[in-house]
Inverse folding.
């Protein structure tokens, strides 16, 4: 009986100490103490984060995160998740930052804190090459279509608003699943972020997919931290300002996102 | 910890969970029926005197039991279309679950059949009964009764396995939890609610198991 009481007191003390100590230390200090920046990233999201032909992890977000760790003077550790697992991983404290091509929607911002956007993009619709639909207006007017989107992506909501007549099929995983679904005829068309679509289509047979060039919406992309990491957030904002001014951000985006240059080096 | 647990949002998502709950039950029942048919057929083939059909049944049972369900699901969903066979999500899901569970049920039923003393088969032969008659009137009624508890155990496993169908865009219980998480970023609320619904299915099956053991087991 006595040992049980003692154990209870001991564990409550331990709990209080661990809780208060996490409140006192900032995430930025934790990173410095640990010497490792833990980054939640996806594996199936070229050009932002993927594994190349040699089995190495790379992409725009991966390289920017590496640059971030270098500027911090710490090592980097990437944690792999499906798209819909990124935010839970950040919230549960498994990762310090979330580095992906994520749109800072107001819904997401209820839970996580976004940096200032590092670029602007938008969702596009795409279908099979021989599909009769050539414009967004065609897709909006058509009845009984199925639209595929990615679980947890901004495209799910955008597609529901833009194509109210279409039935949604929500895939879990990464953007390539959507292209596969379109090619196999599991869906009439799909909606996803344009930079991701253009990069990922290049991995499939040429001229099999038709991307409707018209953007459905305009949206920013940003990295994220938890709301309990204000110091880390302001450091990251400053980091983006610096690399924007010294040209390293544009060099990264021009290589990875605004062109298919990376395809030659990473197949 | 509990003060940040958001019951209001859970209530908001209850209609979605209800939809997933009913869909999980529907899929599981359909797959269970399929598994039962496949299981009985595979068991009969497995214990038949024909070497060929026994060999086919062994290959089926062993290949299903030795590979992960997720791999089977991905093969049927992503692999088969490349070979020219395109099945819808729901058909793929029910088919894979039936085939997978059918292999386990075949072995469960076989254990039941083999637990019937050989004297009864011999008595059947002595009475001039055919193979079919012996199976239909002597062996199966006893064997199936004995195997009800392990079969319900397998049914519970099947219900839990149906959560994998969320990976091929089927809107069942686990997908309801995933959707909740991806819209509100509340994994604790989402998956705890999901678990509670699975628990409800478990208790329904358990109740049926207790009832059926009283009713169905042939006690002589």
């Amino acid at each position: 009986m006595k040992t049980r009481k003692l154990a209870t007191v001991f564990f409550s003390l331990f709990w209080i100490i661990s809780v208060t100590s996490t409140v006192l230390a900032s995430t930025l200090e934790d990173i410095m103490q640990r010497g490792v920046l833990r980054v939640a990233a996806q594996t199936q999201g070229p050009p932002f984060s993927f594994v190349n032909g040699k089995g190495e992890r790379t992409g725009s977000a991966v390289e920017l995160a590496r640059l971030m760790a270098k500027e911090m003077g710490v090592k980097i550790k990437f944690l792999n998740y499906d798209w819909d697992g990124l935010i839970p991983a950040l919230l549960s404290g498994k990762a310090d930052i979330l580095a992906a091509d994520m749109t800072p929607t107001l819904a997401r911002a209820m839970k996580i804190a976004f940096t200032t956007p590092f670029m602007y993009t938008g969702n596009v619709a795409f279908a099979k090459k021989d599909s009769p639909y050539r414009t967004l207006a065609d897709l909006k007017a058509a009845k009984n279509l199925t639209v595929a989107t990615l679980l947890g992506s901004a495209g799910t909501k955008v597609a529901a608003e833009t194509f109210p007549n279409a039935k949604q099929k929500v895939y879990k995983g990464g953007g390539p699943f959507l292209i596969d679904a379109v090619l196999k005829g599991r869906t009439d068309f799909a909606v996803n972020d344009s930079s991701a679509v253009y990069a990922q289509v290049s991995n499939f047979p040429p001229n099999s997919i038709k991307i409707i060039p018209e953007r459905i919406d305009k949206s920013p992309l940003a990295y994220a931290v938890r709301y309990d990491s204000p110091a880390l957030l302001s450091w990251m904002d400053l980091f983006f300002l610096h690399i924007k001014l010294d040209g390293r951000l544009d060099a990264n985006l021009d290589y990875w996102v605004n062109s298919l240059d990376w395809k030659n080096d990473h197949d | 910890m509990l003060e940040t647990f958001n019951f209001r949002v859970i209530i908001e998502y209850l209609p979605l969970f209800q939809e997933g709950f009913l869909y999980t039950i529907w899929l599981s029942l359909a797959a269970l029926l399929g598994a039962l048919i496949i299981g009985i057929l595979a068991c009969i083939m497995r214990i038949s005197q024909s070497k060929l059909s026994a060999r086919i049944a062994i290959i089926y049972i062993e290949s299903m039991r030795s590979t992960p369900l997720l791999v089977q699901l991905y093969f049927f969903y992503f692999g088969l279309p490349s070979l020219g066979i395109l099945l819808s999500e729901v058909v793929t899901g029910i088919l894979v679950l039936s085939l997978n569970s059918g292999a386990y049920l075949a072995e469960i039923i076989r254990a039941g059949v083999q637990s019937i003393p050989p004297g009864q088969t011999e008595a059947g032969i002595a009475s001039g009964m055919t193979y079919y008659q012996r199976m239909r009137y002597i062996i199966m009624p006893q064997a199936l009764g004995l195997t009800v508890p392990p079969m319900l155990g397998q049914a519970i496993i099947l219900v839990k396995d149906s959560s994998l169908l969320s990976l091929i865009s089927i809107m069942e219980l686990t997908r309801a939890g995933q959707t909740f998480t991806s819209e509100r970023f509340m994994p604790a609320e989402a998956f705890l609610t999901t678990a509670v619904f699975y628990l409800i299915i478990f208790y329904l099956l358990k109740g049926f198991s207790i009832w059926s053991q009283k009713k169905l087991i042939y006690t002589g």
The CA atoms of residues 114 and 143 of chain B lie 8 Å apart. Chain B has ten helices and no strands.
